[in-house]
Specification:
three-stranded antiparallel beta sheet
């Protein structure tokens, strides 16, 4: 039989990968490519009292420096949450706006604060180090249960009690389950910690972009398991352009281990 249940499916991609002929994002070489470096927050929770990028803009090889205020002035949108959840009572979940670059406040370690584009990566990194940022530290909370405490620091002022949504997926029979527990000889309760997991390729935070001024179209090369999931919100919510003007190409991803 040509196809059958349990028949092994031979892999066809291994030869080029194990012989060094794979093509990942870092292998994409375009003419006149510049390099970008993102300055990230070293603290988990703080107000941005001052951010001065004047010195960075004057450094050798620097072509462009952006802060959150600059991005806001350009009219670019925030990174939107793409999960359409509602609360158990049917009301909409709270919005957690994520600007491309932090504005007024940082809310996690590694949050982008400024972007530097230069002729070389070393020049971009040196310029980023010249950006002066004054952080006013705020109390951080790293445990979800602690974040729901009445006296916990608020991450977003418009979200009471740090509760973004209260979700019930309506699976199963709640009344029958409660009745079964009521009749049980013993009931055991157990607290479990579910660690956060995320799927990552071997090239995290990778992107190579190319803009064609004649057509007005852009091409983005990035390792992702969902090119359309990247393209549509990036075009429509952030760049505010028709999604047909942005093409996303995914080279080899190199696994997505959690």
């Amino acid at each position: 039989m040509k196809f059958g249940i349990g028949q092994p499916v031979r892999r066809y991609e291994d030869l080029r990968l194990i012989t060094g002929r794979g093509r990942y994002t870092d292998d994409v070489t375009l003419p006149h490519t510049t390099q970008a470096f993102v300055l990230r927050s070293p603290v988990a929770h703080a107000r941005l009292r001052r951010l001065d990028a004047a010195a960075a803009r004057q450094m050798p090889g620097v072509l462009f420096v952006a802060t959150g205020v600059d991005i806001q002035a350009e009219g670019l949108g925030n990174l939107a949450c793409q999960t359409p959840l509602v609360n158990s009572d049917g009301t909409p979940r709270h919005d957690t706006p994520r600007p491309l670059l932090a504005i007024e406040k940082v809310r996690y370690v590694g949050q982008p604060v400024a972007l530097v584009v230069a002729e070389t990566l070393s020049q971009a990194r040196d310029a980023a180090e010249a950006i002066e940022v004054d952080y006013e530290p705020l109390p951080p909370v790293t445990d979800a249960r602690d974040a729901l405490a009445p006296d916990a620091p608020k991450l977003f002022d418009h979200i009471p009690g740090n509760l973004v949504f209260d979700w019930d997926n309506d699976l199963g029979d709640a009344k029958a389950t409660e009745a079964a527990f009521a009749k049980a000889a013993r009931v055991v309760s157990l607290d479990l910690i579910n660690n956060r997991l995320v799927a990552n390729s071997m090239e995290p935070r990778n992107a190579v972009a190319d803009y064609d001024p004649e057509s007005g179209r852009s091409t983005l090369y990035t390792a992702t398991q969902g090119p359309h999931f990247v393209r549509d919100p990036l075009a429509e919510a952030v760049l505010k352009i028709p999604k047909e003007q942005l093409r996303v190409i995914t080279p080899h991803v190199g696994a997505a281990s959690a």
